[in-house]
Specification:
It is built from three helices and twelve strands, in the order E-E-E-H-E-E-E-E-E-E-E-E-H-E-H. With 199 residues, the protein is of the alpha+beta class. The protein has a domain of 139 residues. Strands 1-2-3-4-5-6-7-8-9-10-11-12 form a twelve-stranded antiparallel beta barrel. A hairpin with a 4-residue loop joins strand 8 and strand 9. The radius of gyration is 16 Å and the shape is globular.
Length: 199
């Protein structure tokens, strides 16, 4: 799965959904290479109908096309500037995200497991466009909204592209952090804050 450099992420259409799930494709070949899905308890699913998602924990599991776990994204209950962790298939921390405060365009900070800033996610409040940049301003990846057809006119389903920098081709951990950051924009930060400008 991590051999790809461009990913297309398509949300699965669910008219009565209590959690989010996505198909992941290799953008260049259009091959289905994995999935991303929230894995939460039945109690949490029920509570989400009555209580904001932002007040409850969530875990997103990213798996390859054979179902093997690649990495997970975890967020506990709501805290100011809540920490969102990324762990590998063995459950080892590889990095984490922290929300920005009062960010008009949206975005968040990305840190590695040693608490060193790895990147910053900068958002464009006009449309779904984000850049993932190193502290020196080097682009590690970008995320842009792709129109998924008629279904987006009638549902909240999204399709977007994640383009990872060529320099990360042989760096699976860095690529995991970039892909996890892209997924978190939509699944955790944007969806739970109610809008891009609130990330």
């Amino acid at each position: 799965m991590l051999e790809a450099d461009k990913f297309m992420v398509k949300e699965k259409v669910k008219f009565f959904k209590s959690h989010q799930s996505y198909d992941i494709f290799d953008f260049d070949t259009q091959e289905h290479i994995g999935t991303a899905e929230e894995t939460i308890s039945g109690l949490i699913k029920t509570l989400r109908w009555f209580i904001s998602k932002a007040l409850m924990p969530t875990t997103v599991e990213v798996r390859d096309h054979e179902g093997a776990l690649v990495f997970s994204i975890r967020r506990g209950g709501f805290l100011f500037r809540a920490r969102v962790e990324v762990v590998n298939a063995d459950g080892e921390l590889i990095g984490y995200f922290k929300s920005k405060i009062l960010s008009f365009g949206g975005g968040f900070w990305v840190y590695d497991k040693k608490d060193k800033q790895f990147a910053e996610v900068k958002g464009n409040f006009i449309g779904f466009k984000y850049r993932i940049l190193t502290p020196d301003g080097e682009e590690l990846g970008k995320v842009s909204k792709e129109w998924g057809g008629m279904k987006e006119l009638f549902t909240s389903a999204d399709t977007y592209m994640v383009d990872v920098a060529d320099d990360l081709a042989d760096q699976p951990v860095a690529k995991m952090l970039v892909l996890a950051a892209a997924l978190s924009i939509d699944i955790i930060f944007k969806s739970e804050s109610g809008g891009i400008g609130d990330i």
